[in-house]
User: Which sequence fits this backbone?
């Protein structure tokens, strides 16, 4: 996905407090109306995947993860090495 294809997660605010303990990665705040709308709009099979990232500015943000696996064609024709004769 190129940077022009980014879809920021509306209603999700990611903050990193540098004075927080190392095990606290970030805080996530949700603006309920916007977040629910975003989730409903981007749901796929009951799920929405969001990546928490750090921008070049150093600020953290939430971005919709739109990755989908490639579908593979299933070949039902047996290979010659699979034949019993």
Assistant:
């Amino acid at each position: 996905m190129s940077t022009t294809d980014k879809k920021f997660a509306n209603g999700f605010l990611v903050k990193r407090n540098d004075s927080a303990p190392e095990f606290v990665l970030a805080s996530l705040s949700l603006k309920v109306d916007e977040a629910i709308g975003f989730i409903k709009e981007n749901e796929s099979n009951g799920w929405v995947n969001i990546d928490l990232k750090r921008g070049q500015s150093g600020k953290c943000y939430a971005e919709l993860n739109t990755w989908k696996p490639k579908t593979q064609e299933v070949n039902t024709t047996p290979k010659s090495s699979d034949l019993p004769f």
In short: The longest strand covers residues 50-54.
